[in-house]
Structures are given as C-alpha cells and as structure tokens.
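Standup notes
- DV: blocked on the single-chain target, sequence here:
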Amino acid sequence: MRIEYHRTLIADRERNAAFARALKAVIRKGETTVADIGAGTGVLALIAARLGAREVFLYEAAEVAGVAAKVLKANRAGNCHLIPCHSTEMDDPPRVDVIVSETLGNYPFEENIVETLNDARQRFLKPGGVIIPGRLDQFVAPVTSDRIHSELCAWNDVGVDLDFSPAMTMSCNNIYVRTLAPNELLDIGASAKVWDAIDFTKQNRSARKGEVFWRMSRAATIFGFVTWWVAELGPHITLSTGPDAPRTHWEQLYFPLLTPLKSRRGEIVTISLRSRTSMDEGTHLAWTAMRLNAEGQRLERQALNLDKGFLP
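- DV (later): unblocked, structure below
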C-alpha cells in the first residue's frame, strides 16, 4: 500500500477530530492504557498519548509500520509501543482499558473489523473497558437520479450496431464508490433506512444481511441503491459517511440495477443485502431488489452479485 493512501487519512480532519473526541472522553491522564489496532502511521496512538494515556500499544501488520516507527521516534513518544503484526497474531497481548480501531472502509467491514474486534474484545480488553467504535449502523436509500446509471449504460451506446450487453450485465454486478447528493435520493434522503446494525461490544457474525422496503407515496423511477454507515465512537460522538454528512475520505456505495424499477404510487420496493467478509476470502456482496404491487405480489425481481462482476 502506497503512503499516499495514508496521507488521505491524515488529511481527513472530520475522522481525526471525531476519534480524538472519543479518546478524550475516556482517557484518564496517567492511568489509561490503549491499544490502537490497525494503527497505520500512528496518528490515533499519538493523539491518545498526547491526551495523557499511560501506555499505548500499536498493532500494524502492513509495511507502513516502518513509517509509524519513525513517526513515533520523531514525536518522542516513549510510552507508545509498536508491535508489527496483526492483532489476531499476537500471543498473550497486554490487557488495556481502551481499544480503538479505525479499520473501516467505504463498505465498513471490508478491512475485517468484525473479526478483529471479536478477537480484541476477548483477549485485549480489561473488564469494563471501552471499544471505539462501539456501534455501527448501515443505511440504504433508493437512488432516483440517473447520473451513475447513465455512466454504466456506455456499453449500450458504443455508436455502432454492436451488442455489449454481457459487459453491461457485468458492470451492473459491481458496486461503485461515489459521492451522491441528497437530492439524488428518494425523498431527498428522508427515505433512508437501517438495513444492518452491529454492536462491537458483543460477539458478532462477519456475515451480515438485512432487508428493507418502501411503500411508494408517488410514482418514481429507481436506478439503483446507495448505502452508507454511521459509527458511534462514544456518547453523542458519531462519524457518518452519509450524503448529508460533512465530507470525509470515505464515500457512499452505489448498488446498480440491471434495469431501472419504474414504480407506481402504492407499490412496494424492497432490497435485501447480504455480505460476507473474512481475512482469507475477502469481501462478497449480493443484493436483490423487487417491485411488488400494493397487495404484496411480486411484479419484478433483480438479483445481483459482486462475484459476477469480476472478469473470469
């Protein structure tokens, strides 16, 4: 991973400030011990140290750990201890009062934070300790703007009489990192619903699934769906990647449809989302959208799967 990616993290002031507020709320000067899991260049560990943490343990398996070591030395952070391995590989880790882990992606679990915090909660955390983030909700909303759909339709507009529909289908079986505006969503984003919620203070499954529906109050054409997340870092301290939230280095995820859903007033639109993430197999996502009549009878169904979006 190039250092440029980590520069984007350092430049994300919303992210840094939110985590700093969360750490400040729980650190007792000269007493609190902290584990920064997936520490990167060490910014959160250094923030914890400057806030008065007694000891901070940094876990980082990637090559950037070498940069973190130099950064710690440059900042004379003698109470910060870099451990260059993945936290799940650490035998008999020191117990701490606070675990902080900013290993969140545009799809929040793509860096395996669920598995990581399942392990860390059991082996790293003292009784009564704190995990940051403590909770995360995933939202989904229908997209009524054709902007991204039109990009994907380039396969259908080659300019000569050729059929690229197999490539178009493959493009739709992908998810796209995009920034959407509230006015591109159904009801200017007020339609957003939680499809998945996770409490990191408990044991969790890395496979996630959820389904939501909307009864249409008016006719609308739905071109796809957008998801985002809101993480609770502490009481009244949240970090959001939503369309109406302050910008961060994260964006939303656009889930396409094969063809737009042209829904009428009174009809029901549903989407079910399923994901599976693991350190060995990576991230797998699938989504199924349906249009139902007012009585709940199925009129249309589209099933898409990220695995079908990769070249064979």
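- Follow-up: Residues 136-309 form a domain with the Hnrnp arginine n-methyltransferase1 fold (CATH 2.70.160.11).
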